[in-house]
Amino acid sequence: MSDYKMIPCAHYDYLELACLRSYWLKIELQDGSQCQARAITTQTHADKTEWLVVEHQAGQQTLRLDSIIAITPTDPAASFGRVMIASQ
């Protein structure tokens, strides 16, 4: 992936809330793939890229935030629904 494109702060707040509440998410990615994973934490690397750390059956994975199109909590009692993260 080329230059990192920061996501809007309001969208970052949803990711942090998902991590705080350990939500299982349906995650839609820029490459057209999807995954189901539990939100663990967010990270900022030295190069200023931001990442979502998730856990699923295969173990932990990091997803660059600008590669995520949308997240949808799978828990019906979640405090938010589908959120668009980065533009396509």
Automatic annotation (TrEMBL):
InterPro entries: ROF (IPR009778), Rof-like_sf (IPR038626), Rof/RNase_P-like (IPR023534). It comes from the Bacteria. Transmembrane segments: none annotated. This is Rho-binding antiterminator. It comes from Shewanella xiamenensis.
